[in-house]
Every structure is written in C-alpha cells, then in structure tokens.
C-alpha cells in the first residue's frame, strides 16, 4: 500500500474512531499548515534522496596504498617479493599482517613452481 493510500486510510479510521478535536484558532492553523506541508512533501522531490544521506566511504588509491604499506612493502622486497601491485593487494586482503602475507605469497610461488615442473 503506497503512502498516500495509507494516509487516506489512517484519516478515515481516525475520523470514524473519534471526532476531530476542536483546537483554539492558532493551534488549528498550525495543524492545517502541518497537514498541508505533509501533503506537499509526499509529492515533491525537493528533499534529499535517501541514498544522498548515506556516508561516503573514500576509495584508497594506489599511491595512498603504497604510502600506507610502505614499511611492509620494503620488508617484502627485502625477502624477494618484488611485485608491488600483488603485494599491496595481499596486504589489503590480510590487513597488513606480514606473516600471513608472506605465507600467502610463498604458497603462490610454490604452487607456480609445482605446476610448472609437472
């Protein structure tokens, strides 16, 4: 059920449930103003879209990643893992845990050697 039908249904139910309370002039005007504003807001796109209110997560670029993982990249190169883009990808995957990164890269080297020898 769309919003407009729900509002109409709500108004009908409330109308039959109890008579509308009579308010003093200023309050009655305020209620009418609010109801008009709500009606207009249902049919306008002036407000921000829902997705526009979601936080934006910044995308880390490769230069930033090289700076972020500079110490780990240096250690990996000293060990003999020279493929910087692969090293960065694996560092991101394992959140910089160097032992896990070295194990993963070592297994890749072992698998490639084993498959090449067979």
TrEMBL record:
| InterPro entries the record matches | UBA, UBA-like_sf
The record's SUPFAM superfamilies line, in alphabetical order, gives:
UBA-like
Q: Which residues form the UBA domain?
A: 62-108
Under which name does UniProt file this protein?
UBA domain-containing protein
């Amino acid at each position: 059920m769309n919003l407009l039908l729900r509002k109409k249904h709500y108004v009908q139910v409330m109308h039959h449930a109890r008579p509308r309370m009579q308010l003093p002039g200023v309050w009655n005007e305020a209620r009418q103003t609010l109801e008009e504003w709500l009606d207009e807001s249902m049919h306008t796109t002036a407000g921000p879209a829902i997705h526009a209110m979601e936080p934006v997560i910044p995308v880390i670029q490769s230069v930033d990643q090289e700076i972020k993982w500079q110490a780990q990249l240096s250690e990996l190169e000293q060990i003999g893992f020279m493929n910087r883009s692969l090293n960065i990808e694996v560092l991101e995957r394992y959140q910089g845990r160097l032992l896990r990164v070295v194990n993963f890269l070592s297994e890749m080297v072992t698998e490639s050697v084993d498959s090449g020898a067979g």
